[in-house]
Write a structure and sequence with these properties.
Oligomer: single chain
Helix content: 25-40%
Strand order of the largest sheet: 1-3-2
Number of strands: 6
Low-confidence stretches: 90-95
Mean pLDDT: 81
Distance between the termini: 22 Å
Strand content: 15-25%
Structural class: alpha+beta
Radius of gyration: 18 Å
Length: about 230
């Protein structure tokens, strides 16, 4: 699913400067992942379609912060995960030591897990940063490659839709349907939709290419044989 709106040229050039060995197509793919953060529609993006090494993540953070100072890149070496983030809210600093130490002079902090032998500890942090209303992980005793296989899941997906009906996924997440007993799936989807629509309205004032776009949020229940947490 490609971008619904043309890529910001300034963003694409920043990616190309940071990663000169990458071809234009690969840079455009990465810029596409970053575009929703650039427009202010997301607070964080997990860069999972283009794998980066630690030095590449650092170069990307420097290049992005040169053109948009509120954006930085965080790399976690145990899992190899790279996150591009907007500056976190003040209340978040007290929760996360690694991110609270971040300053404008450090465009690419390296996250430190309290228990490196349990990289699943990163899951709720990443879910929180990525705007997932429900962030969870199973206990280490229940872990495994297919710990949710055969279990009913609630899947929520948010998309940016341009006037020609081209769609760009903003985020998608799932959680066990049994958690819906303690939370309202409908209220969760509505709150997410309201948040993204408010960000779109704000983003349009800065990025006119977003005019005419809308936010769609949909939910469905699925049961899969294989599920990767």
């Amino acid at each position: 699913m490609g971008p619904a709106v043309p890529l910001p040229e300034k963003l694409l050039k920043a990616v190309q400067r940071a990663l000169p060995r990458w071809n234009r197509r690969r840079c455009a793919t990465l810029a596409g992942e970053l575009s929703t953060l650039w427009w202010g529609l997301r607070t964080a993006v997990l860069l999972d379609t283009c794998s980066l090494e630690e030095d590449e993540a650092a170069a990307l953070g420097t290049a992005l912060q040169a053109v948009q100072k509120n954006v930085f890149v965080a790399y976690e070496p145990v899992s190899g995960q790279t996150l591009a983030l907007d500056n976190p809210p003040t209340s978040f600093h007290a929760l996360l030591t690694s991110l609270s130490a971040h300053s404008p002079s450090s465009p690419s902090p390296c996250l430190t897990l309290p228990s490196p032998d349990h990289p699943t500890n990163l899951i709720p942090l990443v879910g929180f940063l990525l705007d997932y209303p429900v962030a969870y992980y199973l206990s280490h005793e229940r872990g495994g490659r297919n710990c949710l296989g055969g279990e009913e899941l609630v899947v929520t997906e948010a998309e940016l839709v341009e006037p020609g009906e081209t769609r760009q996924r903003l985020l998608a997440f799932s959680y066990p349907a049994r958690l819906a007993k303690s939370i309202s799936s409908e209220a969760t989807a509505k709150a997410l939709e309201d948040k993204l629509r408010a960000r779109l309205a704000s983003g349009i004032t800065i990025h006119p290419e977003l005019r005419g776009c809308r936010i769609d949020v949909a939910q469905r229940n699925v049961t899969l044989d294989q599920v990767a947490l």
